[in-house]
Specification:
Radius of gyration: 14 Å
Shape: globular
Number of helices: 4
Oligomer: single chain
Distance between the termini: 27 Å
Number of strands: 6
């Protein structure tokens, strides 16, 4: 399925009458099932007033990383920098939290609501350097749509 076709599916999920968590999980499932190199897809959100992220809906191997302090790992760095972070090879990254030994690359895109970084989509790949600028643009679209329902 192309990114354009996936965008239409994302729109359909976003506008459904399901709960927010059900819609987020449906997006994770859609991406993981339709993009071969998306092997773990999940959302992290700011945990109240704390300087940490809390795991939201996700699809993939279970993770011990339910809470991630700001600044720690790729997700924690995005919470501080407010910028996309693409890691072509996690083994070359100093501040990386390993979720699984099979993970080779990661992409994290922030979700902004009224200019505030309230969370992010996190995708792990078991393939080295799979993410392109097309992935980034597509995931930015996904995050903009998610921001509409948060």
């Amino acid at each position: 399925m192309t990114f354009e076709a996936l965008k239409l599916q994302v729109e359909t999920i976003i506008t459904s009458s399901k709960t927010v968590d059900e819609r987020l999980l449906a997006i994770c499932t859609l991406l993981e099932e339709n993009i071969s190199y998306y092997n773990w897809v999940g959302f992290y959100f700011k945990n109240g007033d704390k300087n940490e992220l809390k795991l939201g809906p996700y699809v993939g191997e279970p993770t011990d990383h339910i809470i991630i302090p700001f600044g720690k790992g790729i997700c924690g760095q995005v919470a501080v920098s407010n910028e996309n972070f693409v890691v072509p090879d996690v083994s070359a990254q100093d501040n990386y939290i390993a979720c699984s030994i099979t993970v080779k690359a990661e992409i994290v895109i922030p979700v902004f609501v009224n200019g505030e970084n309230i969370g992010q989509i996190d995708i792990d790949s078991n393939t080295t350097d799979p993410f392109t600028s097309e992935d980034e643009r597509f995931l930015e679209f996904v995050c903009e749509k998610v921001a509409d329902i948060i």
